[in-house]
Structure to design on (732 residues):
């Protein structure tokens, strides 16, 4: 088969479908992989990600559990103790909170507690973030809570190919992975073939989605399309923006981020999560510590406001959008370059 | 047929909202705790089992007093004693088969030791040189669990996984009366019953959650009654009657092993010592109450039965006491040796592979240790407590 023939075999596939395919392939490859959660069986999950799994693998492998998140994750701990590789679906971001004690007190530290004797190869899938018109408790960006817990990996795909590749990597990982699925990208589509999935590097590597020279936008998950759109719009202003997709918040790929910022000298971190105590603060601090002498301006953040997640009719005011990103870019002290006589936006 | 499925193929339609229960096993516990010692039924008990239980109780009591003494000497950071509760601790270990799993709480180091764990390893958490001092797979003893009742869903998940694999494994999970108020207790019972997982839940009702008495913990007629709401049998037993606890737990284990699902056992006992060495029990209970329970001591009850039936004489008792002293002397000697610590272990088991950030932090600590060693050779951890 020629490369051209493979390309024509690619069809538009949604992120939700790619995630489902990743679960299916992982279950087919490894009988230790078990899916459990609320409504993951006959219904296929409220976002249909587990569609067909119970039928193909039976209810013992894809199990509708009682409605109790601590119980689900706690049971997954016991299953992992016995050598299984559970994949837990939390129905929505805010409905994962009842499982926090199991996550923080057990899942994240069981390996450490037992000096490696009891690893926890558990994947916790969390549909997260806003922008879908969800009512209260359906749109939280909870990544900062997870990031603050040593022992967890925290991953957030932004593309169809990454959704598949990173979920496979998460399930294969011997460490617990919080797998944050951007809800509003579930229905985003890309030409992609499950039979020839693109190779996605393992958890912990960021990628430059758009090369640029003026400044670096650092983002992940649902804010990636926003940043790419902003970068496109910025060309009209003479800015050539680089866009880094973190893909994984923990481990954090400092090398890729810092290499980009050293090239551009300016950085904006963009995410839906609140700014105060959010991931952007940690990222900005790391850039400042490591790239200080390359910076032409303070690292800025474009984040959700420090408010409880708003009702759906007001959420557009809360979510970082293209204009807010461009406004931050405009505040990256370009004036100093004008006074130095250099052209705007080029370095 | 898979375990969770009904006969036939995959059923996408939900079951009816209500179905009559068909299992004839009664769910409600007896109104009074089940007792054997001192009753006519005790005559049928296996003398060998009684002697075995007695030896374990005597050693268990000595273990408790030794661990408490080690705390006073600064060798343990803290010790939550199970003095007075040895019958539950010992019986929980003895009813397990080789392949079964024990899920202890922080007060249950004795059960872990009775299961075969090295006491020094069992006490690692409480000495503070690491969190879990043993490989849980070696004796199939899960890590001692400090957050209340959170180990119960683990027991359910493990038992469920074993059953899915077709393995003959039962998990016995231990929790206290206070722990029954935690959400994880209820979620674990519910999951176990829905999945018909081979689990036995042993609640040691020792009267207090630190200082709060049971009356402020629950309005239920007994903790065993809580089983009924989940559709599993609840059993109430005298927790100081080692033979009764052993029998009730054995029945529950048999039921679980044969596919009959989980059982909740409430053992009524009493915490003779304070919550830990850091607690002052005189603030919330009277000496009179403690003395009443001392008269109902598990060793006294069993000794009375054994001597009354001439199954044990003074020489036999003395032999058990001496065995217990040897165990205590060995424990004392080994606990009086300073543990060997390597601060770099802090970074070893956070992830399967260290992150770049953790490698940097490990390098920093290594440099700090090297600098300190240069300043003051031989005074680093490893020789120091």
């Amino acid at each position: 088969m020629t490369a051209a023939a493979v390309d024509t075999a690619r069809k538009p596939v949604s992120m939700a479908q790619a995630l489902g395919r990743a679960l299916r392939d992982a279950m087919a490859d490894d009988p230790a992989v078990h899916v459990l959660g609320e409504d993951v069986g006959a219904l296929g999950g409220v976002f249909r990600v587990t569609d067909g799994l119970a039928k193909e693998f039976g209810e013992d492998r894809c199990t509708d559990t009682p409605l109790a998140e601590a119980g689900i994750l706690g049971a997954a701990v016991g299953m992992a103790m016995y050598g299984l590789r559970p994949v837990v679906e939390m129905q929505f971001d805010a409905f994962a909170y009842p499982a926090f004690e199991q996550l923080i007190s057990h899942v994240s530290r069981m390996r450490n507690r037992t000096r490696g004797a009891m690893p926890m190869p558990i994947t916790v899938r969390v549909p997260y973030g806003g922008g879908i018109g969800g009512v209260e408790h359906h749109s939280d960006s909870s990544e900062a809570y997870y990031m603050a817990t040593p022992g967890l990996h925290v991953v957030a795909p932004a593309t169809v190919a990454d959704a598949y590749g990173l979920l496979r990597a998460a399930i294969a990982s011997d460490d617990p992975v919080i797998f944050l699925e951007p809800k509003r990208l579930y229905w985003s589509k890309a030409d992609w073939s499950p039979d020839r999935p693109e190779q996605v590097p393992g958890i912990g590597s960021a990628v430059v989605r758009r090369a640029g020279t003026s400044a670096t936008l650092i983002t992940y998950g649902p804010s990636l399309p926003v940043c790419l759109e902003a970068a496109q719009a910025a060309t009209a202003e003479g800015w050539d923006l680089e866009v880094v997709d973190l893909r994984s918040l923990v481990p954090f790929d400092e090398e890729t981020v810092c290499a980009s910022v050293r090239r551009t000298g300016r950085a904006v971190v963009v995410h839906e999560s609140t700014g105060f105590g959010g991931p952007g603060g940690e990222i900005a601090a790391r850039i400042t510590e490591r790239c200080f002498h390359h910076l032409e301006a303070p690292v800025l953040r474009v984040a959700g406001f420090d408010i409880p997640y708003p009702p759906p009719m007001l959420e557009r005011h809360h979510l970082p959008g293209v204009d807010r990103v461009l406004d931050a870019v405009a505040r990256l002290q370009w004036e100093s370059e004008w006074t130095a006589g250099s052209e705007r936006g080029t370095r | 047929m898979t375990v969770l499925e009904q006969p036939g193929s995959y059923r996408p339609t939900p079951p009816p909202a209500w179905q009559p229960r068909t299992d004839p096993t009664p769910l409600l516990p007896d109104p009074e705790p089940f007792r054997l010692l001192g009753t006519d039924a005790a005559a049928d008990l296996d003398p060998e089992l009684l002697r075995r239980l007695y030896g374990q109780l005597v050693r268990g009591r000595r273990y408790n007093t030794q661990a408490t003494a080690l705390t006073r000497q600064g060798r343990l950071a803290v010790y939550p004693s199970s003095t007075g509760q040895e019958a539950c601790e010992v019986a929980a270990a003895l009813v397990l088969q080789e392949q079964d799993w024990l899920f202890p709480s922080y007060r249950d180091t004795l059960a872990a030791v009775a299961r075969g764990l090295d006491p020094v390893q069992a006490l690692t958490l409480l000495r503070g040189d690491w969190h879990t001092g043993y490989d849980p797979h070696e004796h199939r003893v899960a890590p001692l669990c400090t957050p209340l009742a959170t180990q119960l869903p683990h027991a359910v998940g493990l038992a469920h996984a074993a059953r899915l694999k077709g393995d003959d494994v039962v998990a016995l999970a231990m929790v206290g009366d206070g722990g029954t108020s935690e959400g994880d207790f209820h979620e674990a019972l519910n999951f176990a019953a829905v999945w018909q997982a081979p689990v036995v839940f042993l609640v040691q009702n020792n009267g207090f959650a630190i200082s709060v008495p049971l009356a402020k913990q629950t309005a239920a007629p007994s903790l065993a009654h809580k089983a009924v709401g989940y559709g599993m049998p609840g059993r109430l037993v005298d927790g100081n009657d080692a033979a009764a606890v052993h029998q009730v737990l054995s029945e529950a284990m048999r039921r679980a092993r044969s596919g009959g699902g989980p059982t909740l056992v409430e053992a009524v006992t009493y915490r003779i010592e304070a919550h830990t060495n850091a607690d002052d029990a005189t603030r919330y209970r009277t000496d009179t109450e403690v003395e009443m329970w001392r008269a109902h001591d598990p060793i006294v009850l069993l000794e009375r039965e054994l001597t009354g039936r001439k199954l044990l004489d003074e020489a036999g008792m003395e032999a058990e006491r001496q065995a217990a002293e040897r165990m205590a002397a060995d424990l004392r000697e080994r606990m009086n040796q300073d543990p060997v610590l390597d601060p770099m272990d802090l970074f070893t088991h956070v992830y399967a592979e260290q992150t770049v950030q953790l490698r940097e932090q490990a390098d920093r600590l290594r440099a700090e240790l090297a600098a300190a060693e240069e300043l003051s050779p031989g005074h680093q951890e490893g020789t120091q407590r």
